[in-house]
Structures are given as C-alpha cells and as structure tokens.
C-alpha cells in the first residue's frame, strides 16, 4: 500500500506543479526519475525486462531516459514530428485557411442561430481532420467562423464555445494521439482509427451537438449577448481554392496505401507523410510559377514545425513514458490492481477508473496530451494482466483526455479563444461543460457496445 500512496502523492504533485505553470515535460520527467530512484531504494527492480541494467539504481534511472529517447524519439516521435511539420507547412502556404473558408460557405444560408450553432460545430469538427492542434484550430475558427456566427445572432460565449470544442472528440486518423493509441492497442492505424474509434467518435459528436443546442439556448435565456454584425466576405484567403485538398493528403494516403485498397502497395505513415509533403511542395512550386527559391523558403516552415514538435510533443511523450515507468516500477499500479481485485472490479471498472483519472488530469493540467501519454503507457500491461482488449481501455482514455482539456480553464485552447472573444475562460468552460459531460457518457457507452472487452 505504501507504493500506491507514493504513486498517488507524486501524481497529485505533478498536477499541482503543472497547474502552477511548471513545464509539463520537465515536471513529468523529474517525477519519473524520482519514482525510479525510490523504486531502487525500496528494493524493487528499476528497469523493465527489455532494458539491461547498468548495475546501479541511479544510472538505471538515467538509462531508462536514454531508452525512451531512442525508442520514442526515433520511432513514434518521428511520426509525430512529420505530421506536425506537415501541418505547419499547410498553415504557412495557406491551405488550412482555404479549408476553413470552403467549409464556412454553407453556413451562411442557415437562418436559425441555434441550428447554425450545431452546423458550425459539426463543420468545425470536420476541420479538425485538417488542423490537428486544438489551440491552432480554435484560433483559426475564432478568426473565421466566429465573426459569422455572431453576425447570425449566436451569442458571443456560445460562439467561443463552438470554436473551443471541436477537438474535444478525435476524428483524424493521423492525429498523434491516435497513432500512439493504435500502437498500444496492437492494431493497424487504419483499422484502429476507422473501425474502432470512428463509430464511437461519431456518436459522441452527435450527442454533443444536441447538448450544445439545448444548453446554449438555456444559458442565452438567462444572459443573452448583443447581436454583432460582421461582414464574412472580408475574410481573406491568398491560396487557390484547390489547396483545400492538400491538408487531407495524409488521411487519403492512410486509406489508399494500406495494402488492401491497392493490393501489393503498402506504405507506412512515415512514407505517406513524406509523400504528402513532397506533393504539397510540388503543387506550391507550380502555383508560385516555378519560383524555386520561394518554394524552398516555404518548406522551412515544415522543418520548424518538426523542431517545435520535438520540443513540445516528443519530449513530453518521452517524459510521460519515464513517469509511467516510475509508477509501474514502484508497484503503484500492481497495488491498484490488487485493490480492484479485492473490490471485485472487472474490466468495466478498470476502464472507468482509467477514464476518470485521465479526465481529472486533463482538467488539472489543461493538456490533452500529457494525461493520455502518461496513462496510455499503463493500458497494455493492465489489459494483459486482466485478459482485456487493450482498445477497450484505450479508446475512452483517448477521448477523455481531449474532453477534459475542453473544460479546463487553464488549457491553451480555452485561454486563447476566450481571450480573442473577450470573455472569461470560466464562461467558456460553463458553455462546454454539459456537452463534454454528454460526450464522455456517450464515449463510455459507445465503447461498451461497440468495442469487444475481451482480448
């Protein structure tokens, strides 16, 4: 039991320091090394069986950091860096803005403010296929859809809530979180994303859209905001209209080159994204009238995006892996499982526990990545011990991390959109709270119905 209390105390401390503004990667890494050192002091094995011991518990802790840098940085980390680099490139050449502009056109014909709100929310969710960053998408929507929504009579808080929440449910099969979840579930990316996650996501989006309709209508009756007229035609897009296809190239590639659509032609996600960057650069080169110098300058944004991804995502992934290993090595997870066994808890109870922990951590930290990266490391071993399908545990955690971020007043997307909308972050959280709760319940029930529990 001592190990469980230590793990709980360190986890609470991690959440506290991150809320206080400490860097998540550094905080998780420090906590993970601390737990690994405590593991050695308590006489437990510091390293997993697949990593050879150095013969000293202090250097063993650092050895695991090295292992995670090699394993995560060179494998999954490279996938994430490529995807983030591609997304940065699409933003730089204006392709993401074209996507938003094209999706915005149909909304201008809807007259009812609350029907428009639902339509805008669904369209915004579709845009998350092209713009993977929750904060980036929120800011983009605030600059484009927000003026149109307020011009159509949607209150300012409701419009901000729509812009802040489309990334609450993951749709994109090339999202970094989905890539990680697929790997941990032991499934091919396209099988996991489409056959396993997508049905649950669609159900959750429908329920959240309905909840947003009634909840915002109820709140607007209590405190309505003045109507603002903004000319949507003033939104400028410099790139050609056909650029709207470019951000979707990796998604198309995942389905096209899976070895089944075109027999004998199978490409992994690395090659697909590299091909997408190459095709995007080629199209941009032709569009810029064969201006090679400018085209190569534009590609620098891709490299910068990859560098930013290493700093902001890959190192977080490494740190979270070290933290998760610390929790497992010290025996906190085994103690938790023992308590669950004593209480008669089965697969459903374990799924609810992990989902609840992920939501709580996401709300406390304001991050959708850190909690998921930390807890998803535990899911395969827990599933193996209890004879469960890893996806049964991972899917609710995957969605819960993003749902929790959407009701965190310290999350980047909430802070950014509320600031642009000139309202309090807590007002935005109030607007997103009920739809997020409805979405979380839907995800849990959807998992129970659509995802096999047993391995």
Structure explained in plain terms:
The protein has 19 helices and no strands. It has helices at about 1-20, 25-40, 55-90, 95-105, 115-125, 135-150, 155-165, 175-185, 190-220, 250-255, 270-285, 290-330, 330-340, 345-365, 370-375, 380-385, 390-405, 410-420, 425-450. The relative contact order is 0.16. It is mainly alpha-helical. α3 packs antiparallel against α12 (about 290-330).
Brief descriptors of the model:
single chain, 455 residues, mainly alpha, 19 helices, 73% helix
Summarize the structure.
The protein has 19 helices and no strands. By secondary structure, the protein is an all-alpha fold.
- Put simply, the count of helices is 19
Number of strands: 0
Kindly, what is the distance between the CA atoms of the first and last residues, rounded to a whole number of angstroms? 29 Å
Q: Sheet bearing the most strands, described? A: none
Instruction: Give the strand content.
Output: under 5%
The amount of helix comes to over 70%
Mean pLDDT: 80
Kindly provide the radius of gyration, computed on alpha-carbon positions and rounded to a whole number of angstroms: 22 Å
Order of helices and strands: HHHHHHHHHHHHHHHHHHH
Query: Outline, from the CA principal axes?
Result: globular
Output the structural class. Answer: mainly alpha
Low-confidence stretches: none
Task: Chart the SSEs and their pairings.
Blueprint: H1 2-19, H2 24-41, H3 57-92, H4 95-104, H5 113-127, H6 134-151, H7 156-164, H8 176-185, H9 189-222, H10 249-256, H11 269-287, H12 292-330, H13 332-342, H14 347-365, H15 370-376, H16 379-386, H17 390-405, H18 412-421, H19 425-450
């Amino acid at each position: 039991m001592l190990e469980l209390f230590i793990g709980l105390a360190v986890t609470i401390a991690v959440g506290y320091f991150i809320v206080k503004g400490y860097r998540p990667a550094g905080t998780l890494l420090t906590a993970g090394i601390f737990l690994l050192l405590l593991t050695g002091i308590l006489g437990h094995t510091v390293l997993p069986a697949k990593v050879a011991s150095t013969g000293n518990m202090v250097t063993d802790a650092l050895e695991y950091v090295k292992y995670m840098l090699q394993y995560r940085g060179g494998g999954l980390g490279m996938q994430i860096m490529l995807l983030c680099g591609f997304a940065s490139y699409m933003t730089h050449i204006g392709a993401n803005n074209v996507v938003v502009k094209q999706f915005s056109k149909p909304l201008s014909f809807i007259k009812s403010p609350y029907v428009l709100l639902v339509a805008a929310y669904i369209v915004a969710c579709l845009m998350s296929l092209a713009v993977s960053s929750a904060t980036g998408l929120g800011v983009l929507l605030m600059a484009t859809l927000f003026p149109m929504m307020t011009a159509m009579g949607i209150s300012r808080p409701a419009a901000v809530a729509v812009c802040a929440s489309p990334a609450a449910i993951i749709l994109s099969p090339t999202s970094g979180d989905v890539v990680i979840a697929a790997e941990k579930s032991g499934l091919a990316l396209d099988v996991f994303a489409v056959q396993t996650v997508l049905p649950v996501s669609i159900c959750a989006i429908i329920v959240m859209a309905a909840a947003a309709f009634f909840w915002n209508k109820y709140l607007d009756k209590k405190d309505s905001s003045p109507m603002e007229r903004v000319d949507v035609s003033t939104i400028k897009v410099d790139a050609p209209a056909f650029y709207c296809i470019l951000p979707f190239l990796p998604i198309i590639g995942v389905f096209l080159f899976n070895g089944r659509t075109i027999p004998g032609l199978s490409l992994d996600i690395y090659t697909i994204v590299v091909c997408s960057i190459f095709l995007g650069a080629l199209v941009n080169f032709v569009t810029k009238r064969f201006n090679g110098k400018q085209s190569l300058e534009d590609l620098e944004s891709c490299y910068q995006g990859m560098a930013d991804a290493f700093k902001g995502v890959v190192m977080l992934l490494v740190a979270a892996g070290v933290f998760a290993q610390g929790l497992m090595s010290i025996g906190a997870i085994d103690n938790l499982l023992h308590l669950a066994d004593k209480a008669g808890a089965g697969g459903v109870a374990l799924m609810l526990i992990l989902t609840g922990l992920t939501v709580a951590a996401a709300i406390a930290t304001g991050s959708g990545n850190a909690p998921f990266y930390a807890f998803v490391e535990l899911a395969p071993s827990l599933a193996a011990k209890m004879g469960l399908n890893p996806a049964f545990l991972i899917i609710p955690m995957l969605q819960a991390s993003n749902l929790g971020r959407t009701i965190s007043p310290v999350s980047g997307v909430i802070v950014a959109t509320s600031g642009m909308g000139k309202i309090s972050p807590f007002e935005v959280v109030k607007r997103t709270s009920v739809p997020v709760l409805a979405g979380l319940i839907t995800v849990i029930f959807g998992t129970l119905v659509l995802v096999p529990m047993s391995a």
